[in-house]
Design a protein that fits this description.
3-stranded antiparallel β-sheet; mainly alpha; globular; two-stranded antiparallel ribbon
Length: 540
């Protein structure tokens, strides 16, 4: 894919995200779900009203900033309410989230490109992220979960940019990375899991480097393996000459399961010889992880995030002087401990972490019924009695089912690929062996699987009531995983695999369109709501 079409595709993804988030943004002139807290809290900073919240303040700052900007804009004020404590349009406390959330697919695409240098992979990752429901719902209302994602992903992207730079430029991007990670944690504490993923992949990179120091390839096998490498049909004459000049210790052999026959992708230290010219770069940033030493990690990914996190607290602490910096954290911890166990008895939408990947318990953020589409919805209050409402308005925090399920399958595939590459040879040969340099796709698999696990598994030990939106931090790596798998299929020699890639893409897009009414809160007839879209009782 050339740059022109890549830029057009990414512009289309951004425009789609913006259009879906801003269209009908003021449809419900009331509070939707946790807007009852966060829209009020955001306005409290403007009215200088002290308050306590169970999360750090950055997300509320962003909402408050949106309210302040909208107060200087002469439009958006046709329909107003006073639920925040000030008279304003619902768009006033929603638009900032809609605008910033539109860039999440772009950030995901940027990460995909930075870990692979493949434009097709990046475009698919951005498209799939734009086609998810829970990200769309979260960014259309005054909620704060999306800011964890935005700043956490920016932290990872800045780190990848730093790994691709040298000296002063590297330090600049590392500082930005640390600030972004601090900002993610300053929205909610689970933003720390993005930084945990970085720590784990960095430790693994050093472990691989240490193990590789014991890995030797026999000299007697070098001519035969070199002949297999240079026979790859995708290589040019110059590339074949370059392979012959390099010692075999500078090559990594990776058996591709997507080719018609057994072939090899070759990744020397200084050049990547793939099937596309866009892959011929020096090294992907992940291969430079060991260029960061312990001092870099402590300063840029330890001290810098802590300083950024602490500074973000200052406006809140100046507003509410009841608690100091240490005491406010103790109070937040006590708040979460008092939320009770993870059971439907505590809250009907409580869902344990293992229910998230299969999306067995999404949740309704808004539900009202009416006699007709011409009837005005009640601003506040219960819906009509069961069976009397002919029109259903539902805003459901529910993902794109096919995207989530395919994403989970792709992660399992990547995990299996890593086991096949590292564990199976170890068992067969009864000795651990690592090539002197891992291929690009292996690094991508490690990056995605480790970050997914780092953002999901810490919830195993959490006893409080948790909800499906807590899965969002891990979910983005499932989107990247299915985008990688589809990209591999589309680049395959086999027609069947290319057809599979196209089919998965169309299924994801069509599913997004099909479930869009419950993401946007559009009017539905009862049969259009259930059973047409609510496939399982646990979804309601």
């Amino acid at each position: 894919m050339n740059k022109k079409w890549f830029r057009i595709g990414m512009a289309g993804v951004l425009l789609l995200s913006l259009a879906l988030r801003f269209w009908g943004l003021g449809r419900f002139n009331t509070f939707v779900f946790d807007e009852v807290y966060y829209a009020k809290f955001g306005n409290n900073y403007l009215t200088h009203t002290p308050f306590f919240d169970g999360h750090p303040p950055l997300g509320k700052y962003m909402i408050g900033l949106g309210i302040w900007i909208s107060s200087h804009i002469p439009f958006w004020q046709d329909e107003v309410n006073g639920f925040t404590g000030s008279v304003m349009s619902p768009i006033s406390y929603r638009w900032m989230n809609a605008f910033s959330g539109s860039f999440i697919p772009i950030i995901v695409a940027a990460i995909a490109y930075q870990i692979s240098y493949r434009r097709s992979f990046a475009l698919l990752a951005g498209l799939f992220t734009a086609c998810d429901g829970i990200f769309l719902v979260e960014s259309r209302y005054a909620l704060i979960n999306q800011y964890i994602i935005i700043f956490g992903l920016l932290g990872q992207w800045f780190l990848l940019l730093a790994l691709a730079k040298q000296r002063q430029q590297r330090n600049f991007w590392l500082i930005l990375s640390g600030i972004a990670f601090g900002a993610s944690a300053a929205t909610k504490w689970n933003g720390l899991w993005f930084m945990l993923g970085v720590y784990l992949i960095w430790i693994l990179a050093w472990g691989i480097r240490w193990l590789q120091s014991f890995s030797l390839i026999g000299e007697e096998n070098q001519p035969q393996l070199q002949q297999e490498c240079v026979s790859h049909p995708s290589l040019t004459k110059d590339e074949k000459k370059r392979i012959k000049k390099n010692s075999l210790s500078s090559l990594t052999l990776f058996t591709s399961s997507f080719s018609k026959k057994r072939t090899y992708k070759i990744f020397p230290y200084r050049v990547s010889l793939g099937t596309s010219s866009e892959n011929r770069h020096s090294q992907i940033p992940l291969q430079n992880l060991t260029q960061l030493n312990l001092v870099h990690i402590i300063i840029y990914l330890g001290i810098t995030p802590f300083i950024a996190y602490s500074l973000i607290w200052i406006p809140h602490l100046l507003l509410d002087r009841r608690y100091g910096f240490i005491e406010i954290h103790r109070q937040i911890l006590l708040f979460h401990e008092r939320l009770g166990g993870n059971s439907p008895k505590v809250h009907p939408y409580c869902a344990a972490w293992y229910k998230w990947p299969l999306m067995t318990r999404p949740m309704a953020y808004f539900y009202q019924t009416a006699q007709s589409t011409d009837e005005a919805l009640p601003v506040m209050g219960p819906p009509l009695p069961s069976g009397t409402g002919k029109i259903i308005y539902d805003v459901h925090a529910m993902g794109n089912p096919f995207l989530w399920w395919f994403g989970l399958a792709a992660l399992l595939f990547l995990t299996g690929m890593l086991v096949w590459q590292f564990v199976i040879p170890w068992v067969r040969q009864r000795r651990f062996f690592l090539p002197t340099m891992l291929c690009v796709d292996t690094w991508i698999a490690l990056y995605l699987v480790i970050n997914y696990a780092a953002n999901l598994l810490p919830w195993v030990k959490v006893n409080r009531c948790v909800f499906i939106y807590h899965y969002m931090t891990a979910l983005v790596f499932a989107f990247l995983a299915i985008a990688w798998l589809v990209d591999q299929c589309l680049r395959s020699y086999r027609i069947g695999l290319r057809a599979l890639g196209v089919s998965i893409t169309f299924m994801i897009v069509i599913a997004f369109v099909f479930w869009m009414p419950i993401y946007l809160g559009l009017p539905l007839l009862p049969f259009e709501y259930r059973p047409m879209r609510m496939w399982f009782n646990s979804w309601i």
